[in-house]
Write a structure and sequence with these properties.
This is Protein involved in gliding motility GldG. Keywords: Membrane, Transmembrane, Transmembrane helix. It is built from 13 helices and 26 strands. It is an alpha+beta fold and about 550 residues long.
Length: about 550
């Protein structure tokens, strides 16, 4: 009977364990105990991941032996993907080492280059010796015969490896959610690329158009029919959710301006890349090595003034700038050298708005300063010059001889000059209480709530050409530098058109603690010795104590 009761208790324990295990296999929960909740998916990301109804395969090329900071990126990527997979089991992922087969690293790197996935060169300091290694911080998401590339490493000029990794982890959720959104969400919004006022040709905006086509329907739109059919032109334009004006060079008529104004009043959104000066870098490469920067009147002064901005027909001269590349020599002896060029500002971000949070410096050329005017419209300066900048009026002769002149820093006192501004709110019509250039069935004087971004340089959207083919926007083929132009403009478009709130994920702040590499190198030997000696000391103390107890026990016996 006693044995029966003993087995009965054991049987109850086994049954209880089976029941608990069965419940746990069906109902489980994950707890994010990190202070910054880095592993907690945002509502916007969950909305996108919920739409994955069949397996999506994510290949991550972050497998191998890395320095500690990049191992951290590897681990954070794995943990985040595990969180996504736990939320939706259709998310599958693999970690792949591109060099696992022993292939030549340069050959593998070339393959990645051709696929548009630039490898990263990292410096490794080991035992006081510096070396360089290649890593491939990219992932590829595959879903229903569609593929999207996902960058995992955020580059930023002047940052350490730890800062790069920290920035990358902050943007990880946005990068994956954005990529998955491209695969599972159908296109809905439509963008008009404006034509008819001397805007950039297709070749110079080809890379950006290719990029936004992954998210939206894109089509050209001209205002040529405004002269004869203004009402129909307006109705056709209202079919688009956003218009992009990429560096117009010809003045707008009053009818064209009213169509654009009424489009805005009806809730349409717009992205303006506009200059009030006429100056091109190519015009300097002549026999004299100089050219005149002249004011350009597009007839839009009252247009932007009414909305709360004034774009000045002047140039921003900034100490913090990108170089100009000049050639010397002839034929095979030609050499290309960089020189300081203060008319190409590298703009900074005065705030942490989602559009510009953790992006690389954006390169401007011949930019104009923007004045912020007071009205009821909310204005956010997205990009500005550095504190060491100045304004130069036009007309003005610009010469390449400036590269040989040391700048007078005492004149660079203009401070941070706005060059990209976001406007949000209910705009007032330019033609309110004015004679209108044509009659509308319904003319709106006080518009619906909407958004507009004004950038005082059209070249921000311009990609370079190599052998007649467009290269990636932001990539300078002469210096090899990649600037943040593409990411900035894509974020701007997504912010203007985003209804899901996905862009807000970019504001997520995550802080990752890293070891001090310099201190680690200095104290390496000390900790190696301690790690070797302390276990032996503890083992010896244990052995001594055990022997002592044993002798004492037998002595008593």
């Amino acid at each position: 009977m006693k044995n029966l009761n003993k087995y009965k208790g054991l049987f109850i324990v086994i049954i209880a364990l089976l029941v608990i295990n069965n419940i746990a296999s069906k109902v489980h929960s994950r707890f994010d105990l990190t202070q910054d909740h880095r592993y907690t998916l945002s509502p916007a990301a969950k909305t996108i991941i919920d739409k994955i109804e069949s397996p999506i395969i994510i290949d991550v090329f972050l497998k191998g032996s890395f320095p500690p900071e990049f191992r951290r990126l590897q681990n954070e990527t794995r943990q985040f993907l595990e969180e996504m997979s736990a939320y939706n089991s259709n998310v599958k992922f693999n970690f792949i080492d591109p060099l696992a087969e022993g292939d030549d690293a340069n050959a593998v790197a070339q393959e990645f280059y051709e696929l548009g996935m630039t490898p990263a060169r990292i410096s490794i300091m080991e035992n006081g010796k510096a070396s360089e290694s290649l890593i491939f911080p990219w992932a590829i998401a595959n879903f229903n015969n569609k593929t999207v590339k996902i960058p995992l490493l955020k580059n930023k000029l002047g940052t350490t490896d730890e800062e790069r990794v920290n920035n990358s982890v902050q943007q990880m959720e946005y990068s994956f959610a954005d990529a998955i959104g491209q695969l599972v969400q159908p296109k809905k919004k439509k963008i008009a690329i404006m034509r008819g006022n001397g805007e950039f040709g297709d070749a110079y905006i080809a890379d950006f158009i290719k990029t936004i086509r992954q998210y939206y329907f894109v089509a050209p739109f001209t205002l040529d029919s405004v002269a004869n059919y203004p009402n129909k032109t307006l109705e056709d334009l209202k079919e688009f959710d956003l218009i992009i004006e990429a560096k117009p060079t010809q003045a707008y008529s009053e009818k064209e301006k009213m169509v654009l104004d009424q489009y805005l009043m009806n809730g349409g959104k717009s992205l303006w890349l506009i200059e009030q000066t006429a100056m091109e870098s190519d015009s300097l490469f002549n026999q004299s090595g100089s050219a005149f920067a002249l004011p350009r009147d597009l007839g839009l002064n009252d247009f932007f003034f009414s909305y709360g901005l004034r774009i000045n027909p002047a140039l921003v001269n900034d100490i913090y700038s990108a170089p100009i590349i000049l050639a010397s020599g002839n034929g095979n002896d030609t050499q290309f050298s960089p020189y300081p060029w203060f008319y190409s500002p590298l703009t900074t971000s005065p705030n942490s708005h989602p559009i510009i949070n953790n992006i690389e410096a954006v390169k401007f050329d011949w930019a104009n300063p923007i004045d912020i005017l007071g009205n009821n419209i909310k204005k956010t300066v997205l990009l500005s010059s550095s504190p060491q900048s100045k304004i130069e009026g036009t007309p003005r002769e610009i010469s390449l001889n400036l590269i040989n002149t040391r700048p007078d820093l005492s004149t660079y006192t203009a401070g941070e000059l706005p060059m990209a501004v976001l406007l949000e709110g209910e705009f007032k019509s330019v033609y309110k209480n004015r004679v209108k250039p044509f009659e509308l069935d319904v003319a709106i004087d006080n518009g619906k709530s909407t958004k507009m971004i004004v950038i005082s340089d059209g070249d921000v959207i311009k990609n370079q050409l190599q052998k007649g083919q467009p290269v990636e926007l932001g990539f300078d083929r002469f210096t090899g530098n990649t600037y943040g132009n593409k990411e900035f403009l894509l974020n701007a478009v997504n912010y203007l058109l985003d209804d899901s709130g996905l862009i807000d994920i970019r504001s997520k702040e995550i802080s990752i603690a890293f070891l001090d590499s310099e201190k680690t190198a200095q104290e390496r030997e000390k900790w190696q010795v301690l790690n070797l000696i302390i276990p032996l000391v503890l083992l010896g103390m244990g052995a001594f104590f055990f022997t002592y107890l044993r002798k004492r026990r037998y002595v008593k016996n």
